[in-house]
Write a structure and sequence with these properties.
Blueprint lengths: L2 H15 L5 H13 L3 E5 L1 H16 L4 E3 L13 E5 L6 H12 L3 E6 L5 H5 L2 E4 L20 H22 L3 H5 L7
Parallel strand pairs: 1-2, 1-3, 3-4, 4-5
Helix pairs in contact: 3-6
C-alpha cells in the first residue's frame, strides 16, 4: 500500500478521536491554566515532546510556562499548575513529579488514556484521551498505528485546541502572539 493510504487512515483515526474527549474536561484544564500563576508541563518520550510544544505556545500567549527538567525551570508553588501528559499514567518519574507538586500545594492535571491510573488518582483535573497504550495487546481501542502514536498525535492536536480556546477567551490572535516568538535564529 502507498504512504498516502496510511496517511488517510491516520487522519480518519484522528478525526474519530475527538468524540472521546469531553468539553467539560477540556474546559476544566483551560480554566486551571487561566487561574494559575505559572504552568509546568511534563511528559516522557514522545508525549514529552508534545508537552514541550504546548509549553512553547503558552509562552507565546504570555503565560509563564515551563517544561519540567529544563535548566531554566522555575520553582512550583501553591499558585501553579502542573500538566502531565502520560498515556499510561504510570510512568514512575511522572508519578514522583505529581506527588512533589501536590506537596508544594500546586494543582495537578493529567492528560491520559487511563484516568484510573496512579497519576489520574493524584490529579485534580483529568482529561481522558483516546488511544492505545504501547502494548496494544491489552487495549480495547483499535488503531493501525504502532505503540501509542494515536495518543501522542491526539495529544498535540488537543493541546493546540486548548491554545485556540485560551486565545478566544483572552482575545488573543496570532499577531499578538508573534511578538513573543524567538527572533535570534
Amino acid at each position: 500500500m502507498e504512504t498516502s493510504y496510511y496517511l488517510s487512515k491516520v487522519l480518519e483515526e484522528l478525526n474519530q478521536s475527538v468524540q472521546y474527549i469531553t468539553d467539560a474536561d477540556a474546559e476544566n484544564l483551560v480554566g486551571a491554566i487561566r487561574s494559575s500563576k505559572k504552568v509546568f508541563v511534563a511528559g516522557a518520550g514522545r508525549s514529552g515532546f508534545m508537552g514541550k510544544s504546548f509549553a512553547m505556545r503558552m509562552m507565546h500567549m504570555g503565560i509563564d510556562s515551563y517544561v519540567v527538567g529544563e535548566t531554566v525551570t522555575a520553582n512550583i508553588t501553591e499558585d501553579d499548575l502542573l500538566i502531565i501528559a502520560s498515556g499510561s499514567g504510570e510512568t514512575k518519574s511522572l508519578i514522583t513529579m505529581a506527588e512533589k507538586a501536590k506537596g508544594y500545594g500546586a494543582k495537578v492535571a493529567v492528560v491520559t488514556i487511563n484516568p484510573e491510573s496512579t497519576i489520574g488518582k493524584l490529579a485534580e483535573i483529568v482529561v481522558k484521551m483516546p488511544g492505545s497504550p504501547k502494548d496494544q495487546e491489552t487495549s480495547k481501542y483499535q488503531t493501525i498505528q504502532p505503540m501509542a502514536s494515536l495518543f501522542e498525535q491526539t495529544l498535540l492536536l488537543f493541546f493546540d485546541s486548548v491554545i485556540l480556546r485560551y486565545m478566544d477567551l483572552e482575545g488573543l490572535n496570532s499577531s499578538s502572539m508573534f511578538s513573543r516568538h524567538a527572533n535570534l535564529e
